[in-house]
Amino acid sequence: MKPTISAKTFAITITTALALGIAPWAMADDKGCSVETLKGTFGYTSTGVILTAQIPALAGPGAEVGTQYFDGKGGVTFTFNSSQNGNISSGTVSGGYKVNDDCTGTFTEVETPMFTANFSFVIDKSGDEFQAICQDSGVVDTRTGRRQFRAGD
Asked: If residue 12 lies in a helix (H) or strand (E), which one and from where to where?
């Protein structure tokens, strides 16, 4: 029994879809990331809730907007405006970051000796964005950052 035209078309469609689906993985494997992948200034938005805090007034919902400057060497500076449980603040703090070959990593935001936020992230959009989540117990907070400027802009 000969395959019908529709069966051949189906087989070609499936083969093409599989080939195209694998192609992005192959390209991602070749690229890799380093601390230099995040070098530059990123605008970010963070939203979430602090369930338990050493400073009771901080427990509750929160939102933050600002910039993160990654120096390409493992240092990061945050300039922000925030509302944490209705308490408004702004400032500039620093921290550090690490990037793994698979484009995941971590950064810390050191607000005071008593308050350091620890995030895990993934780099996407060819290094133009990152998605992060706070890894501290008692905190539910996500962050999205987008590159503000490209080199030469």
From this structure: helix 5-31
Burial class of residue 46 in the structure, from the number of CB atoms within 10 Å of its CB (0-12 exposed, 13-18 middle, 19+ buried): buried
Start-to-end Cα distance in the chain: 63
Distance CA 9, CA 15 (A): 10
- d(CA 133, CA 15) in angstroms, rounded, equals 37
Element (H, E) at 96: strand 87-99
Please state, in angstroms and as integers, the Cα–Cα distance from residue 14 to each residue in 18, 20, 21, 149, following that order.
6, 10, 10, 40
Residue with tokens 């380093």: 34
Give 40-60 pLDDT, tens digit per residue: 999 999 999 999 987 788 899
Domain 35-147 has CATH 2.40.128.20: yes
Q: pLDDT tens-digit profile of 102-119?
A: 999 999 999 877 778 999
Rounded Cα distance, 61 and 121, in Å: 21
Q: Where are the domains of the chain?
A: 1-31, 35-147
pTM of the model: 0.75
